[in-house]
Amino acid sequence: MARLTRAETQERNRAKVLAAARAEFTERGFRDAKVDGIAERAELTRGAVYSNFPGKRALYFAVLADAADHAPAVPGEPGLTVREALGALARAWVGALPMATDSAHGDARLGVDLLPEIMADELTRRPFAQLLSLDAIVLGLALERLDPTAGRLVRVAEAALTTLHGASGLAAAAPGFGEIFNVVRACEQLADLDLGDQWPAPTLVPPVHAVDQPWTPTSATDLLTGDPAVLDGDGVVAVLGVHRLTAIEEALRADADVTAVVVTSHPEELSPLVRLTVTELRTRLRQAVPRSAWPRLRIVDDDRGFLAAAAGVPAVDDDTETVVRVAAGRVVARADGYGACHAAARRSPTARPT
Fold first, then answer.
1. What pLDDT sits at residue 249?
2. Residue 65 has pLDDT above 80, yes or no
3. CATH number 1.20.1050 is the correct assignment for the domain at 6-52
4. Which residues, listed in sequence order, are joined to residue 228 by a DSSP beta bridge?
5. Parallel/antiparallel/unpaired status of strands 221-222 and 235-241
6. SS3 of 275, please?
7. CA-to-CA distance for 285 and 292, rounded, in angstroms?
8. 209 with 354: CB under 8 angstroms?
9. C-alpha span between 174 and 152 (Å, rounded)
10. pLDDT, tens only, 97-146
11. Which of 61, 136, 187, 196 suits a disulfide with 158, CB 3.0-4.6 Å?
12. 139 to each of 13, 237, 244, 292, how far by Cα in Å?
């Protein structure tokens, strides 16, 4: 039998840790789960667990992301109108909530400790707020494509997600409370609610500089579809820290083909949370909106910074916002700082490349 390479051994051990952690979290719940118990289940040392994950919370996020990525498809038809889409989204959402009859720990209740763990630390709270806003932007833009006369629907999407996340919280804290299908009807009614939603274009934007550099992206997965990301076409590539994710709307409103490259100063902790949130967004979009109405957007978790480096951003942090325009396999324009998404997607370069 051929001996495993170091990389293959690391990948096998990581898979064993994830499987053992899921079993531990399912049986004991997040708070009572022990890293020593996970190591024992995986038949590895405690050090081997920590060599793959920095702590129990990061491991929990990774388990939930992996579970979301492998969740079975939920039967149902996406909606063809805004009302139908909101109803389809809500029905699929409440259908997956843990019920009062579920055991305290089990597959149905695996994720009930997610929000408390996010709330416990500013490191996770602010990125999660941005990730939820990204969810609302993508859902809102998809709803707008179902009804181009409706105006901006991001606030409607925010209201729907607020309602549904609230239902999730109550299902965890007070199982059996309320009639969950009233939540579906409430979400459907949002289609007729005027929230005075308008998109304010940025007033201060950085200059767009002409450049001429090769665009040689590494392979990556598009978290929004689960498929390999097609990165060699023309369009806008936005390298965004986890505190700047809402800026992507500025590029999408320019009707550009957009790739959001998500980066962070804390990839071991926050990349699993990015993958989890965007993977769940993918599931919800599939349930709610026909694929033809999805925005022209790819979302890539760049936990190693390879795509950022290809875009000319060798150092990243949570507040990074650098946007490049790609044409014919070359980076032809670049903008940096707040407003870069708007600038690079809409403005012509102000200087010739040097």
1. 96
2. yes
3. no
4. 221
5. unpaired
6. helix
7. 11
8. no
9. 34
10. 876 555 555 566 788 889 999 999 999 999 999 999 999 999 999 999 99
11. 136
12. 37, 20, 18, 13
Q: Give me the residues paired with residue 240 across strands.
A: 262, 321
- Position 23 pLDDT exceeds 90: yes
- Residue owning tokens 């006369």: 149
Kindly state the tokens that stand for 289: 């909106």
Report the pLDDT value the prediction gives residue 107, as an integer from 0 to 100.
61
Tokens of 101: 């009859």
CATH topology of domain 209-346: Glutaredoxin (3.40.30)
Q: Are 300 and 261 within 8 A, CB to CB? A: yes
Instruction: Report angle CA 122, 205, 194 to the nearest 5 degrees.
Output: 70
CB-CB contact of 181 with 110 (8 Å): no
For 158, residues 6+ apart whose C-beta sits below 8 A from its C-beta are 133, 136, 140
H/E element, 29 = helix 6-32
Q: Which two tokens stand for residue 229?
A: 């990301």
Of 304, 343, 307, 287, the residue nearest 76 (C-alpha): 287
What is the three-state SS of 282-309?
Answer: HHHHHHHCCHHHCCCEEEEECCCCHHHH
